From TrEMBL:
SUPFAM superfamilies according to UniProt: L-sulfolactate dehydrogenase-like (SSF89733)
Record keyword Oxidoreductase present: yes
Protein name: 3-dehydro-L-gulonate 2-dehydrogenase
Encoding gene, per UniProt annotation: yiaK
Ranges annotated as spanning the membrane: none
Biological source species: Chryseosolibacter indicus
Length: 339
């Protein structure tokens, strides 16, 4: 049996300070470095290590290679009422995404709904960051991004689709309901994590080179045949998300992004809806609570199982990691400290 990897427990404060040091060293302004360091740390605190601490070395590599322009600011290209098209100028994905989320909320505050479509940007890391940001401010959020081609169409063996993550956020008490999901059963970041942990996937996540479903992350990464969620349905949804991202932003499609070996110049969409503008605003809280209460009454398939809504488990993980430190693979933390 393969030996299990070693984990360290890093406090949120120490992690954020290390990220900040590295980002400033690599040319970020103090404000931009602080925002990026905070986002990477919060993703890690919430247990999204694949787009937090584990992803940080690759982010810095893209900065060093010039794919991410540290302090580039997104610029408005075109406005038509509550719909705007922006150019991210290859700036840092998290910074661009946060600014476009804020702009979508501004438009929604004025018009009830706001849509910001962003071209020429970079990986936004955890999409749920922006769904949570909007929902915590009282807005419904719908957003998505395209990616480099990394998933086969249903019935194909070569990758023509991205696994194009979709995010939907809804305000709810102190912790919003936030769905953040790729169009593949597992993201490539998740496959990398299971590979580093030397663990099998809980359910099949793709195919081996012979076309057999497998729970082996290494085999799936080698075959490059990840499994779409819902089989043909996930593949179809991925295609439409790519089409809409490219068309609404005037940016690149997955096919065009994939002409480069690096995942850069992505297209993204950020939609915010101001719930306070709705006629039924005063009753929304009661309606939502009734839905959640009924949902929680589901009978678990396993003894002592608990049915949770999207994002509900995050609170437990956050509290655990803030109290005891964030679990980080030793090899990952050593890599970060050497940056």
């Amino acid at each position: 049996m393969n030996e299990k990897p070693n984990y360290l427990k890093i406090s949120a404060r120490d992690m954020e300070a290390e990220f900040l040091r590295i980002l400033i060293k690599h040319g970020f302004t103090s404000d931009n470095a602080k925002t990026c360091a905070r986002i990477f740390t919060e993703n890690s605190i919430d247990g999204v290590y694949t787009h937090g601490v584990n992803r940080f070395p690759r982010f810095v590599k893209y900065v060093a290679e010039g794919h991410v322009r540290q302090n580039a600011e997104p610029v408005l290209k075109h406005a038509a009422g509550a719909v705007e098209q922006w150019d991210g100028q290859l700036g840092a994905g998290p910074l661009n995404a946060l600014k476009c989320t804020q702009r979508a909320m501004e438009l929604a505050s004025a018009s009830g709904i706001g849509c910001v479509a962003l071209a020429n940007t970079n990986h936004w890391m955890r999409g749920g960051t922006y769904g949570r940001e909007a929902a915590k401010n009282g807005f419904v959020f719908i957003g998505w991004t395209n990616t480099i081609a990394n998933m086969p169409a249903w019935g194909a063996i070569d990758s023509k689709l991205g696994n194009n993550p979709l995010v939907i956020g809804m305000p709810y008490k102190d912790e919003p309901v936030v769905l953040d999901m790729a169009m593949s059963q597992y993201s490539y970041g998740a496959l990398e994590l299971y590979e580093m942990k030397k663990e099998k996937l809980p359910v099949p996540g793709g195919y081996d080179s012979s076309g057999n479903l497998t729970q082996d992350a290494i085999t799936i990464r080698e075959s490059k045949r990840i499994l779409p969620i819902g089989y043909w349905k996930g593949a179809g949804l991925s295609l439409l998300l790519d089409i809409l991202a490219a068309v609404l932003s005037g940016g690149l499609s997955t096919a065009e992004i994939s002409r480069s070996k690096d995942e850069i110049s992505l297209s993204q969409v950020f939609i915010a809806i101001d719930l306070s503008k709705l006629q039924n605003f005063k009753s929304i809280e009661v309606t939502l609570q009734q839905i959640i209460d009924d949902y929680h009454q589901s009978v678990p398939a396993r003894e002592n199982g608990k049915i949770v809504f999207p994002g509900e488990r995050v609170v437990l993980t956050r509290n655990e990691n803030l109290k005891n430190g964030i679990p980080v693979l030793e090899e990952v933390w050593n890599r970060i400290q050497a940056l």
